[in-house]
Automatic annotation (TrEMBL):
Native species: marine sediment metagenome
Full protein name: Retropepsin-like aspartic endopeptidase domain-containing protein
InterPro entries from the UniProt entry: Asp_endopeptidase, Peptidase_aspartic_dom_sf
Composition bias, Acidic residues: 216-226
Organism classification: unclassified sequences, metagenomes, ecological metagenomes
PROSITE patterns assigned to the protein according to its UniProt record, in alphabetical order: PROKAR_LIPOPROTEIN
UniProt xrefs under Gene3D superfamilies: Acid Proteases (2.40.70.10)
Length: 226
């Protein structure tokens, strides 16, 4: 009887140890918040894969330009000179020139734009600080059109006139850093006219202009070596 009691007690201890072990090594449950941030294989399959250099168009212009895809930068950037701020129907606008080399013909082309100022940023780097206007512009990559935020600055000392950063990459897809020019440029035929019509409407009707962030404090971003 005494021996039986010892066996029963030992069995209870072993059972408790096994229970603790199973709890300690059990797979943790993914909370609702964490589950929402997990990227599934299906979601990855739906993403467009781009090279670190792609060809695109700044709508409504027909000129093809080389675009650098760089996840090190936050806000996309576009080469711009002769930047001039002005008021239109009480709203802040900016006009600027974008001199670029046509990626198809190697000819220099000067593109002229006027856009509402969406917001402003203060860029900090080794050389000091630089205030830049940010505008929304439509670009075509592959067969899709994206309206994205671009800071304007003189990128004349850079190899590529247009750089897209993380804010834009999030909408475009994934980067294959070992490849270039993965997307054949096939912009929708209607894209140019649609962009011209949109810009014309904003010039005529100020209620269509979204520069609600133009008067807010400048957002600070760190300079990225491009």
């Amino acid at each position: 009887m005494h021996s039986t009691s010892k066996i029963s007690a030992l069995a209870s201890v072993l059972a408790a140890c096994l229970l603790q072990t199973s709890i300690a090594y059990a797979e943790p449950e993914v909370s609702g918040e964490m589950a929402g941030s997990v990227t599934t294989t299906e979601q990855l399959d739906e993403k467009v894969v781009v090279g670190w250099i792609e060809k695109g168009r700044i709508l409504p212009e027909h000129t093809a330009v080389k675009i650098k895809v760089d996840s090190g930068a936050l806000t996309s950037s576009m080469h711009a000179v002769n930047i001039e701020s002005f008021k239109r129907k009480g709203k802040d606008w900016v006009r600027y020139d974008v001199p670029v080399k046509d990626a198809d013909t190697d000819e220099m082309v000067n593109l002229e734009f006027e856009r509402p100022i969406f917001r402003k940023i203060l860029v900090r780097g080794a050389g000091g600080t630089d205030r830049r206007p940010v505008v929304k512009m439509s670009i075509c990559m592959g067969s899709k059109v994206y309206e994205e935020q671009f800071s304007l600055r003189d990128r004349g000392d850079m190899t590529y006139p247009v750089l897209i950063g993380r804010r834009t990459i999030e909408h475009v897809g994934l980067i294959d850093v070992s490849q270039t020019f993965l997307l054949p440029l096939d912009c929708p035929v209607s894209a140019e006219n649609a962009e011209r019509s949109k810009q014309k409407s904003m010039r005529e009707d100020s209620t269509l202009v979204d520069n609600s962030k133009a008067d807010e404090a400048e957002e600070i971003e760190e300079e990225h070596e491009e």
